[in-house]
Design a protein that fits this description.
The chain is of the alpha/beta class and 419 residues long. It folds into two domains: 229 residues, TIM Barrel, CATH 3.20.20; 119 residues, Lyase, Ornithine Decarboxylase, Chain A, domain 1. The protein has eleven helices and 18 strands. The strands form two sheets. Strands 1, 11, 12, 13, 14, 15, 16, 17 and 18 form a nine-stranded mixed sheet that branches. It is globular. The chain starts with 17 loop residues before the first helix and ends in a 16-residue tail after the last strand. It binds pyridoxal-5'-phosphate (PLP) and lysine (LYS). Lysine binds next to helix 11. Pyridoxal-5'-phosphate binds next to helix 10.
């Protein structure tokens, strides 16, 4: 069963007034479905229900899509937040997510970020080094507080995803090696201002198989036993995110959340820990599309160039990771064509697809990129002085602009006019 194929919730031209949105807001524009997000949140909550001791926390990885309206919808679904910067922390709080439902991850938290999050409250700081734990200890001690902390373990497991979104091998900057964990926890126990309570792991994103996750979780399980024997009261295990989403019928089909939940239940049965999950892409990836208009079709040596008004600055994933996104006409004309789909940016990397067979389209037609709800708008930038892409939320038959197009052509920089 494909949880992402429910036509009533998915963003399909027949269900969503994409043409009206494009006319009112202009293109390119990100469009997100509230119904799909809610359904994905429910699928994840159901998949992990009853896992671990106490109520599991699904802490949505804000980095996937930090739009405030999206966060408010997910808060309403009962999700917490996994944040990696004070900006994400503030957004989560502004959306009404309670401090005790927020975990603070990230390899480079600054003293200022830790101080503000500690003052505001978090469920746990996921520390990625003993150096970070020492800094947190000093900050907490100065505030007269006890900072809840867990270490992120780097289990040295190959996630089987793209190298640039693999995070759990020895060559990656993330976490502390499993072999150094006992020493790190022992030191943290001696530091003032820390409440050593947890452990966490996250090995990468868009994972198709759950076997690497299982291997990583088993390593965590071994460590929990060893840490308890050493005197650390580990009560919270944060299993990270990373579950992949389907991108198309002929693309690799990731394991379903139910299979993931069953594996977690099996592996963690005797951990006696509360569990936290940090899904990002799973919740919002297939809840969004990037809507763009064909600027022109130009002849090419192998295939015609389909030049759209979205560029690599609007959706970076194909340029960064050679990521595959479904591309469709909003109003198909019936015929098919094989084309190279590119944007207007002055880089050859500004390519969304080469030799793609898709709906035949003409200049002025609307085209959508699928699976753009995660790591789309949030990674957009203003390269080539292009505006930051606006975002629209659709709920049933109503829709609203939830981020305006941000114009970067007005020379907002401070300019001393030196010549
Ligand atoms: C620590 C951490 N948690 C959660 C996530 C969310 O990952 P995903 O969107 O693949 O579920 C990420 C991103 O890979 C991450 O770095
Ligand atoms: N930005 C990546 C995912 C990285 C997740 C963050 N650790 C993507 O678009 O696939």
């Amino acid at each position: 069963m494909d949880h992402f194929a429910n036509r009533s919730g998915s963003l399909h031209a027949e269900d969503v007034p994409l043409t009206a949105i494009a006319e009112a807001v202009g293109t390119p524009v990100y469009v997100y479905s509230v119904a799909t997000m809610k359904r994905h949140a429910e699928v994840m909550l159901d998949a992990v229900a009853g896992c671990g001791s106490g109520e599991p926390l699904v802490a949505y990885a804000v980095k996937a899509n930090p739009n405030g309206a999206v966060l408010r919808v997910l808060q309403g679904c009962g999700l917490g937040a996994d944040v990696v910067s004070i900006g994400e922390y503030r957004r989560a709080r502004a959306a009404g997510i309670a401090p005790e439902r927020i975990v603070f991850s990230g390899v480079g938290k600054t003293a200022e970020e830790m101080a503000e999050a500690l003052a505001g409250g978090v469920l746990q700081f996921n520390a990625e080094s003993i150096e970070e734990a020492r800094m947190l200890s000093a900050i907490a001690d100065a505030q007269g507080k006890s900072a809840p902390i867990g270490f992120r373990i780097n289990p040295d497991v190959e996630a089987g995803t793209h190298a640039k979104i693999t995070t759990g091998t020895a060559d990656n900057k993330f976490g502390i090696p499993a072999a150094e964990a006992l020493g790190a926890y022992a030191e943290a126990e001696r530091l003032p201002g820390l409440k050593v309570q947890g452990i966490t792991v996250h090995i990468g994103s868009q994972l198709v198989s759950i076997a690497p996750l299982e291997a990583a979780f088993r390593r965590l399980g071994e460590l929990i036993g060893a840490l308890r024997a050493q005197g650390s009261d580990i009560r919270l295990a944060d299993l990270g995110g990373g579950l992949g989403v389907p991108h198309g019928a002929d693309q690799p089909q990731p394991a379903l959340p139910e299979a993931y939940g069953a594996m977690v239940r099996r592996v963690t049965a005797d951990w006696n820990c509360r569990l936290v999950f940090e899904p990002g892409r799973l919740i919002v990836g297939n809840a969004g599309v990037l809507l763009t208009r064909v600027v022109r079709v130009k002849p090419g040596a192998s295939h015609p160039w389909l030049i759209v008004d979205a560029g690599m600055n609007d959706l970076m994933r194909p340029a960064l990771y050679d990521a595959w996104h479904g591309i469709e006409a909003v109003t198909p004309r019936g015929a098919k064509a094989t084309v190279n789909v590119v944007g207007p940016v002055c880089e050859s990397g500004d390519t969304f697809a080469m030799a793609r067979e898709m709906d035949a389209v003409e200049a002025g037609d609307l085209v959508l990129f699928r699976t753009a709800g995660a790591y789309g708008a949030t990674m957009a930038n203003g390269y080539n002085s292009r505006p930051l892409t606006p975002e629209v939320l659709v709920d049933g038959d109503r829709w609203a602009l939830v981020r305006k197009r941000i114009d970067l052509s007005d020379c907002a920089e401070v300019d001393p006019d030196w010549r």
